[in-house]
Amino acid sequence: MIENAGEDWQIAVQIFIDYIQVPMIIEGETYQTFFVDTDKSFSKEFCFQIAETLDESVDHKIMAAMTVYSDKHVKDSELEYTTNGYSIALDAVLDIAGNTDQFIMNKLYNYENPRESYKDMWYGVLINTELQDFKRRVPDKEIVAQKNERKDFVYHVGGYDDCTEALVILCMGMEQVDVNQQKYMLFKLEKGKIQDGLVTITMPDEQGSYDLTGWIIKNPFSEEKTEINSVSDTWRFTINVT
């Protein structure tokens, strides 16, 4: 069910299985990302199928994300600064096998090796381009990159008191992108501490403007089937690829 009240905007819907974006089938059509144009009183139910075969002998993790203003760019907004809070994302166990002992969500990658860990009154995930001093500063509304460039960014992740592991997904143009040559980043956290380090993203091979979006998932390997967890997003900004 997609509902909207208050503003006209386009919403991008993305589905992730085991934290990798998968295509979905809606009304006989296949979409990597499904875009919905809504008005001030929009309410409609969409049924979808995952357009990939899943191992049904085990349970999986499923994350659904809805991002507003998916047809616009932060660089063109009237906001003085970029912002987070542009999406709703939920994370849960996809109970297929009916047995918590059969769980496929293995750790595909090693933990990131942060540059440093530090304490501060902050938590979440932030991506910027402060490569000289790694300052945790809200990113500029837009930056410039070259086609196919392997571009370095800085991450700040953590600050939580209630989890020891976190996973970060990033997207450009409302589709998941590889980060450090893998589908997502995995972090081993210390209570209340923030980690910073480098993340490399290969830019698209087509010129254009792409908004960088993303989420941080706490305790991604939790097998608790009764929980549906809300997911926090990172600050969104525009990358102009030339």
UniProtKB/TrEMBL annotation:
Q: Highest taxon of the source?
A: Bacteria
* Official protein name in the record: Uncharacterized protein
